[in-house]
């Protein structure tokens, strides 16, 4: 092979190397671009996550608050209750103002501590779930001895 042949081969090799470098460079550029895009996406994702985390936290707090309010025994479960007995000195026929049925011997009744009005325990239980006052005299139903109820009451 003569000198010209070597030159051609050298030229080809150089061209090949140059092409390789260009490809590498382009590859690098692409990689950098891709990296930048990835970083941007990561940032956006992190922002989205932060937002979601914030929302999740807010939602969790709401749920925790609900749970905390629901955690304590229901108000009516803390009210004193007893089987109705005429012997307790009440009028011979007392009506439950919620269902308008008489309180009968042996039926479980609850008496509101504040006003001493008495109702069927189940009737009062259903009542205090939606209302916080006595069905007869509107006296606020307060159960002492439970922080949860006191807190819930303060917040209203
Ligand atoms: Zn009743
Ligand atoms: Zn009352």
Automatic annotation (TrEMBL):
InterPro entries: RING-H2_zinc_finger, Znf_RING, Znf_RING/FYVE/PHD. The chain crosses the membrane at residues 6-29. Residues 26-60 form a coiled coil. It catalyses: S-ubiquitinyl-[E2 ubiquitin-conjugating enzyme]-L-cysteine + [acceptor protein]-L-lysine = [E2 ubiquitin-conjugating enzyme]-L-cysteine + N(6)-ubiquitinyl-[acceptor protein]-L-lysine. The keyword Transmembrane helix applies. It is an enzyme of class 2 (transferase). Keywords: Coiled coil, Membrane, Metal-binding, Transmembrane, Transmembrane helix, Zinc, Zinc-finger. Belongs to the RING-type zinc finger family. ATL subfamily. This is RING-type E3 ubiquitin transferase. It comes from Eleusine coracana subsp. coracana.
